[in-house]
Amino acid sequence: MRKILDLIVVNLIILLALAAACIGQDKAQDNDKATRGLPAYRNPFLPIPDRVADFLQRMTLEEKVDQLAGGRRRMVAFQDPEGQAIFQKFRGLFGNDSQASAHDAADLRNQAQRYVMEKTRLGIPMLFTGEALHGYMAYGSTSFPQVLGLASTWDPALVEQVFTAAADEMRSAGTNQAFTPVLDLARDPRWGRTEETYGEDPYLVSRMAVAAVNGLQGTSWSIDRHHVIATAKHFAVHGQPEGGTNTAPGNYSERIIRESFFVPFQAAVEEAHVGSVMASYNEIDGIPSHINHWLLDTVLRKEWGFQGYVTSDGNGLQMLVETHHVAADKAEAARKALAAGVDFDLSDGTVYATLVDQVKQGLVPESEVDLAVSRVLTTKFRLGLFENPYAPPDYAQQITNSPGHKQLALKAAQKAIVLLKNDGNLLPLDPAKLKTIAVIGPNAADVHIGGYSRDPGPGNQISILDGIRKRVEPGVKVVFAEGCKITTGKQGWSAWYENTVDIPDEASQADSIHAAADAARKSDVAIVVVGENESTNREAWSEQHLGDRDSLDLIGAQEQLVEAVVATGKPVVVLLINGRPLSVNFIKEHVPAILEGWYLGEQGGTAAANVIFGDVNPGGKLPITFPKSVGQLPDFYNYKPSRNRSYLQDGRAPLFSFGYGLSYTTFKFENLRVDPPQVGTSATAKVSVDVTNSGTREGDEVAQLYIHQRVASVTRPVIELRGFKRVTLKPGEKTTVEFNLTPDALSLIDVDMHRVVEPGTFDIMVGPSSVETSAVALQVVQPTFIPTPAATPPSK
Question: At 194, which helix (H) or strand (E)?
C-alpha cells in the first residue's frame, strides 16, 4: 500500500511539473506575441542590460548627451511650439509661490511625458526629479518634522514610514526621483545645513539612511509606482566644513573619512541599494568631489558595488571653473567630471552639452558617454517608466496630505520632541489647575517647518500658539505676546528663499519685551517659544544668500526676552524651535523646564501642546551635542582620548550630550551582560540589559549600546554607538533589550588601511545616553586552530 501511495505522489509531481512547464511555455508564447515586432529596448521581459545595450546602438550622439545634460533644459525635446508651450507651463506652475494642486501637477507632468514619448524619435521618458528632505517639496504636500527632528526619534521604522508616505505623494504627482536623504555628518553646528542631517554619529545616521532609502524606494530592485529613486547626498565629507561655512573643504585623513563620513553612504549603497548618489561641492585633499576618481569610482563603484548613477549637485560642475579653478572652461569641467564618474549634469545642462562637440573632436571617448547614459537609462528601466510613464492625477489629489499622512506627521513630531530639563516636574502642565497661560516668543504664532519646504496648504499647518489654544480646557485664558522678533520681513518656509536677512536692533525690542513680561506676570505659567527661523539657519548657496553663523547664541533680543520673563518669578517653560544646537546657557541655568522641538513640521503645534499638557510623554533623544559655545567646537561625543584637556576657567562638558533626553517617568537599567564573555575575532556576542519603567507613567526609553576598545593598534574613540532600540513601557513594566555585537561592530581600520577585528578587551556600555551607562567587559581573542592529524597510511 505504501509503495502505491509513493507511486501516486511521484506521478502527481510529474504531472504538476509538466503543467507548470506548459503554463510557462504558454506564457512565454504570449509574451513573444505581445512583444513581436518591438525593438528589444521596448521588451519588458528582457533583462535591463540587454534593453540598455539595444538602446545605445540606436541613439545618436545628441540623444545620448541629452540624457546626461537634461537638468533644467532639453536639447532634443521642447523644440517645436507644442513643446515650448509645455515648458512655459512648467516655468509658471512650479515656482516657489506656486499653488498648483497635486492633481494639476501630475497632469502637467503627464503632458510633458506624453510629448517626449510620442513626439521624439525614440520616445525616451523623462526622469522628473524633486526634493523630499522631510516630505515631498511641493505645494499642499505633507510637511514632516525636519530631518534633525526625525533623527531625534531614534526610530528607524518610523522614519521608513515617513519616507514611504513622502514617496507616494511624490510619485503620484509624477516625480520619479528624490534628492534625499542627506547623509552628511553634522559635526560643526555653525553650518546652516545642520538641520538637514541625522546628526553627528555615523552609526545613527547609517540606520536612518537605510530606513529613508527603503521608504523612498521600497525594498525590491524594481521600483513600483508608489516609490521613487532615492539620492544619497552629499558625497562626501560635506558636514564638517572648515569654519562651518557651506561648501568649504573637508580635509580629513582617509582613516577618519572611512570610519566616520563614509559609513552612512556605504550602508545606503550596500544595504538599501540606493539608486543615485550626488557628489558634494567641497574638496578633499585638494580634489573637488565632482572630479574625484577615488571617491566616485574606486570607493563608490569598485569597493561598494554601487549600481546606480551619480548626479552633480546644482551648478556643481560650474564650480569647477568658477570656484575651485581646476578647469579652465565648461568643456574641461565636462571632460574631468565625466571621466571621474559623474553621469548627470544637474543645473542648466550647459556643461555636459559641450560633450557633443568634444566627442566629435576626439577629446572625449564616446564610450565614456555610453557608460554614463547606460546608468541613467538603467534607472529609468528600474522605475518602469517605459511601461508606466504617467502619473495618476486623481490618486495624487487623494493621497497628498491625506488624513493618514497628517496623523503620521503628528506622530513623528511627538516622537521627535526632546525633554532637556524638568526641575520640580513642572511638566506636564495640568490645564485644569490653570486659569491663564501666557504664550510668548517670536516662534509661537508663526509656523516654522525648516528649509527645503513648500506651503502645506490652508488648514494643514498648526502653530504652537494654535495648538495650545485648541488643547486647553474651556475657560482657560491664553494670552499671546511676541516679545521680540528674530528677523523682520517674510516669516516661515518662504523666508528660506530670501537673500536679505534683517535682524532688528535689540534696543528697539524693549517695549515689546516689557509687554511680554507683563503678560507673564499676570499669568499662571509662561510658555516661551524661541530659537531660529528659516532665514537664520539655512543653506548658504552664495555670498548673497548666507545661512552659516559664527555664533550659536540666540539671535537678537531673545535672551533678554527670556531673562525678563524669568524675572517675573512665574513658572517658565521654554520650547526651542530651531535647526541646530544652540548655546542656551542662561536658559539651562535659570529655566526649570526646557523642550527641544527642532522644526516640527505642519502638525508641530498639536504635537507640542500634547507634550506640554501630558497627553504624550516625550521620549526623543539628542542626535547631536549642544556645546556651551562655539569655542568648544568641534564637540561631537565620540572624540579621541588625547582630547583630554579642559579650557582655562571651564571644563569640556557640553550643555547637553549626544543621546540625552528625559521623560515624565523614570527608567532603570539593570543586569547588563554579554554572552559569551569571550569571543573569537569572527564571532558575534549577544548583549542584554533589563530596562524597567520605575515611574508612574507610560513612556518611551531608548537603550543605547556603546563600545570602547581599551588597547588597539590605532587610536580609538572614547565611546562609539553600536546599537539602539526605542521601547515603550507601562509603569512597573520590565523588558529585556538585546543587541547582536557583530565582528563588523568591533572592527577598525588598521595601520595598513585594512578593516580588521583586533584581539583585546572591549568595554561594552549600555544606558539612556552617551554619558549615562553601565559597562561590562568583552574579551576578543584570536581563534586557536588545532590542525587535523594526517590520516595514517594503510600498512603494506
Answer: none
Rounded CA-CA distance 695/684 in Å is 34
Per-residue pLDDT at 367 exceeds 60: yes
Residue type at 74 in one-letter notation: R
Kind and range of the H or E run holding 728: strand 720-729
Cβ contacts of residue 354 below 8 Å, gap of 6+?
A: 330, 331, 334
3-state secondary structure string, 570-627? CCEEEEEECCCCCCCHHHHHHCCEEEECCCCCCCHHHHHHHHHCCCCCCCCCCCCCEC
Over the stretch 60-118, which tens digit does the pLDDT of each residue have? Answer: 999 999 999 975 455 445 667 877 777 777 776 667 778 899 999 999 999 999 998 99
Q: What is the pLDDT of residue 21?
A: 55
Question: Which of 616, 628, 656 minimizes the C-alpha distance to 769?
Answer: 656
Handedness of CA 158, 162, 167, 169 (dihedral sign): positive
Task: Please say whether the dihedral angle defined by the alpha carbons of residues 171, 176, 181 and 182, taken in this order, is positive or negative.
Answer: negative
Q: And the C-alpha cell for 227? A: 516609490
Distance CA(416)–CA(686), nearest Å, equals 29
Cβ neighbours around 60 below 10 Å, total: 12
- Measure the CA–CA gap between 71 and 312, rounded to whole angstroms: 10
Packing angle of the helix pair 156-172, 102-119 (nearest 10 deg): 60
C-alpha closest to that of 314 among 281, 275, 353, 274: 281
Closest CA to 592 of 566, 631, 555, 610: 566
Q: Please state, in angstroms and as integers, the Cα–Cα distance from residue 473 to each residue in 410, 466, 616, following that order.
A: 21, 14, 16
Please state at what angle helix 366-382 crosses helix 330-340, rounded to 10 degrees.
60
Residue 79: HSE in the Cβ half-sphere, 13 Å Cα cutoff: 9
> Which phi-psi region, left, alpha or beta, contains residue 291 (left: φ > 0; alpha: ψ -120 to 50)?
alpha
Q: 276-279 and 229-235 as β-strands: parallel, antiparallel, unpaired? A: parallel
* Residues 511 and 422 sit within 8 Å (Cβ to Cβ): no
Mean pLDDT of 263-281: 98
Give the three-state DSSP class for 697.
Answer: coil
Q: List, for residues 34-62, the tens digit of each pLDDT value.
A: 566 789 999 999 999 999 999 999 999 99
3-state secondary structure string, 376-444? HHHHHHHCCCCCCCCCCHHHHHHHCCCHHHHHHHHHHHHHHCEEEEEHHHCCCCCHHHCCEEEEECCCC
Residues with Cβ within 8 Å of 222's Cβ and at least 6 positions away in sequence, in order, are: 382, 384
Whole-model pTM? Answer: 0.94
Concatenated DSSP letters of 151-192: HHTT-HHHHHHHHHHHHHHHHHTT--EE---B------TTST
C-alpha cell at 719: 565611546
Confidence of residue 783 (pLDDT cuts 50, 70, 90): confident
* pLDDT for residue 22: 55
**51 grid coordinates:** 534593453
Distance CA 334, CA 76 (A): 19
153-169 exposure pattern, b = at least 16 Cβ within 10 A, e = fewer: bbbbebbbbbbbbbbbb
pLDDT value at residue 796: 40
Q: Which residues pair with 596 in a beta bridge?
A: 418, 576
C-alpha distance from residue 188 to each of 469, 639, 758, 770 (Å): 37, 13, 31, 19
Distance of CA 112 to the CA centre of its chain: 30
3-class DSSP state of 735: strand
**145-159, 231-245, 641-655, 730-744: the lowest-pLDDT one:** 641-655
Please report which helix (H) or strand (E) contains residue 469, including its range.
helix 464-471
Contact between residue 150 and residue 450 where contact means Cβ atoms under 8 Å apart? no
Helix crossing, 263-270 with 202-217: angle to 10°? 30
Q: Exposure of 747 by Cβ count < 10 A (0-12 exposed, 13-18 middle, 19+ buried)?
A: middle
Q: Which residues are catalytic?
A: 313
pLDDT band of 609, cuts 50, 70, 90: very high
